């Protein structure tokens, strides 16, 4: 997961191994909760569509 501060305030987070899995939040706690929800929804949607869920990369 990568977290970027937004110039206007707040944060954006993305999970590199899950293309399109991105979210935003106002605080570090909010961004952590939001990215977990986004990850779960991403995996659920990919699974329901019958698409392949990628394995995690080795990069941190």
Query: Can you list the strand order of the major beta sheet?
Result: 1-2-3
What is Rg? 12 Å
H/E series: EEEH
| Largest sheet report | 3 strands, antiparallel
Q: In one word, what is the shape? A: elongated
Enumerate the spans where pLDDT stays under 50 for 5 or more consecutive residues.
none
* Strand proportion: 15-25%
Oligomeric state, counting identical vs distinct chains: single chain
Alpha plus pi helix count: 1
Q: What's the β-strand tally? A: 3
Q: What is the typical, i.e. mean, pLDDT?
A: 93
Distance between the termini: 8 Å
List the helices and strands and how they pair.
Blueprint: E1 2-5, E2 11-14, E3 22-25, H1 28-48
Antiparallel strand pairs: 1-2, 2-3
Structure description:
This protein has one helix at residues 28-48, and strands at residues 2-5, 11-14, 22-25. By secondary structure, it is α+β, with helices and mostly antiparallel strands.
Which terms summarize this structure?
alpha+beta, 1 helix, 60 residues, 3 strands
Entry summary:
This protein has one helix spanning 28-48, and strands spanning 2-5, 11-14, 22-25.
